[in-house]
What we know:
Blueprint: H1 9-25, H2 31-38, H3 44-56, E1 60-61, E2 70-71, H4 73-83, H5 92-101, H6 108-123, E3 126-130, E4 139-146, E5 151-158, E6 162-169, H7 176-190, H8 195-211, H9 215-228, E7 237-240, H10 242-247, H11 254-266, H12 268-278, E8 284-287, E9 299-307, E10 312-321, H13 326-345
Antiparallel strand pairs: 1-2, 3-7, 3-10, 4-5, 5-6, 8-9, 9-10
Amino acid sequence: MSVSNELSDRAGTLLRALVELHIRDGQPVGSRTLQEEAGLPVSAATIRNAMSDLEERGFLHSPHTSAGRVPTAQGYRFFVDTLLQVQDGLDHRALDSLRSELHPDRNATELVQSASSLLSSITAQAGVVTVPRPARQPLRQVEFLPLSGDRVLVILVINQREVQNRIIHTRRVFSEQELREAAVQLNRRFAGRELQDVQSEVERELEAARSQLDDYLSATLDLAQQALADDQDPIDYLVVGENRLLEGASPEQLDQVRELLAALERKQDLLHLLDRCATADGVKIFIGEESGADAFGDYSLITAPYGDGTRTLGVLGVIGPTRMAYDRVIPIVDVTSRMLSSALGN
């Protein structure tokens, strides 16, 4: 029998009221408080029995010696999947902020950075956004400008608006005409193709040219290889608002928050989790232990993929305590992913 069929209407009503109370107040919920909030015409003793049954089924647990109860990860999961009533739309201030910051006149880097900041400020949680890997983005145009000696300024135009400038040292001195011809050849052959494909093909042709002892072709391809090389340390994802995780933590949770912050710094656990979210269709929610990462414990991750209309480029989301306001955070994550995708696509 599925979890959704295990609870009666009364038990479901009590569980929903208890979860909402715990999200609001952050305290264990007792039977009398629950009786007042749930509005059911039953005695406190009946509610205590129902709460004991929910605890036996794994939906609630009693912290320490408290008479009240708090939801477990399973309880939150049932609440999110079955009982949650998500808010319709966002408030005007949140929408205005998203429209103002996520507009198509900005380049991809600025849009991604804004998305993580917006998620944090609007939800009052930590916002996270994976950064599109340059190798997966299309090359639009390349230009070479001679400097002094063997120094060449490379101008790469990626994704219509993304412009990268770098200075390289070539293995031989190129004339201005040679650099212009090299740029024309590269643009004619590779414009519109993903950087990763272009890099791979240039490397194959460079090996062939070397085996044929074609010095000029080798030098030209070597110029292209240096121009397209990604010699910077990749930024896998951006997290904004980590301090909010500390602000909302109880004294008993501080050690766990520090462990989570350390995991965010290490990146490996979160990257694995975000990679799983990239193939999801819409919003995906990991509650506590569901993430498979011990560091998440009493914390949840809500994500949605974003793209440019033709493919998925990354994932954005919110990290917060399991007692976050899911009814509000879920639509914020969903709308932000759609608006970021629209801006990148346009």
